[in-house]
Amino acid sequence: MPKPTPSPSLILATLALAVYFVGAVEFMLAPMLTPLALAFAAKPADVAWLVSAYAVSYAVLAPLIGLLSDRIGRRRLLLPALALFAADALAIAFAPSLTFAIIARILGGAAGAALTPTAFALIAETVPEDRQAGAMGLVLFGLTLGIATGPTFAGLLTDAFDWQAPFVAVACGCLAVLILTARILPPSVARQGQPLKTSAARLLDGAILRPNLSKGFWLGATIAGFLISGEVLRNRYGLSTSMVGLSVTAFGVGLATGNLAIGRFTIWVGRPETVLIFAIALIFVTQSAFLATDPSLGLAIGLLALWGFASGLAAPANTAIQASRAGSNAGFVLASSESMNNGALLVLAPIVASWIGGGDTINAAILLGVCTLAALGVNLADRKSQTKTLPCLNP
């Protein structure tokens, strides 16, 4: 008998589990910069290059892997990506030096480049357009759980055992999800893709370029800001590693709420473009207030939660816009967008980590705020451009 086709909801749940480790692997470093610096006899700013190495690999490989996913099918890339995440975590756990660990992060970057945009491209080709924002929000909820629980588990496991324990736990989890994903996802379907030159030309189309640039600006700034948030809390309030991990979980809780609310928000306002503009404006306000002011610990945690909520709305809204405009090039366009995100992170993370190491939160707030405002400006220009073209599309 032929194997029954899994339900769409089961596929979405499986994709959510798969991308869970993207958030866990990347964001669990937030409370671990100081323990890793001690382990490798380095400075926290040097350890931040673990993030930058991941970003370089991701940024360079994402477009090529996205183009490949448009041709050979999504499953053939999702499964190896989970295996690479496991290998990356083990390589860092048993790295003899920080240099080795930074080089090993190339594996993690390749895995992220294969997994996240491919999962969203799969949604774009299997879910009706009017439901894509909600579906992407559900899958992003898995990513959010990784962001929310990754720092917490990393802090608790580091305090209870040592800094290697979180990486070993991630490796075991990736292998378990790999087995489940292999059983759930339908077979890959090879398709005839467009030539690289044709696909690349699509990236210069204003309708594609504007949301790609926007996401690069606001998401790169948001990730860089979140990665230093743990050190900001540690320096201001004298928190332990485990307490830092628990405190930054507020950002993840906000993210989860935003992910789950995006479908209803889109229905209320009618267009994901409007949701995105509101969300980016809220990111700017909360991110700037967290970094540039000196609030009480309770208020700081509340700002982190609102910052996360705004990001939880912005990510699926931005991705749905990109996927709906990209059509058959969804894998390539979404992957190229991820390159922009990680390119921005590559530049921003070492700079703001160095400033935070010296206690300078004001310059960090200014730099990240400028990037977020740039994203807001791009989206306002995009809405104006799209409004002008709508009568032409619907005579």
Automatic annotation (TrEMBL):
Keyword annotations of the record? Cell membrane, Membrane, Transmembrane, Transmembrane helix
Primary localisation category: membrane
Entries under SUPFAM superfamilies matching the protein: MFS general substrate transporter
Q: Which residues cross the membrane?
A: 49-68, 77-96, 102-123, 135-157, 163-185, 216-233, 239-262, 274-293, 299-320, 332-356, 362-381
Q: Name one GO molecular function term.
A: transmembrane transporter activity
Q: Which InterPro entries match?
A: MFS (IPR011701), MFS_dom (IPR020846), MFS_Efflux_Transporters (IPR050189), MFS_trans_sf (IPR036259), Sugar_transporter_CS (IPR005829), Tet-R_TetA/multi-R_MdtG-like (IPR001958)
Would the keyword Transcription regulation be found if you checked this record's keyword annotation? no
Membrane topology term reads: Multi-pass membrane protein
Question: Which residues does the UniProt record annotate as the domain Major facilitator superfamily (MFS) profile?
Answer: 11-386
One protein family per Pfam: MFS_1
Q: Where in the cell is it found?
A: Cell membrane
- GO cellular component terms attached to this protein's record: plasma membrane
Q: What does this protein do?
A: Resistance to tetracycline by an active tetracycline efflux. This is an energy-dependent process that decreases the accumulation of the antibiotic in whole cells. This protein functions as a metal-tetracycline/H(+) antiporter.
Q: Which family does it belong to?
A: Belongs to the major facilitator superfamily. TCR/Tet family.
According to UniProt, the name of this protein is Arabinose ABC transporter permease
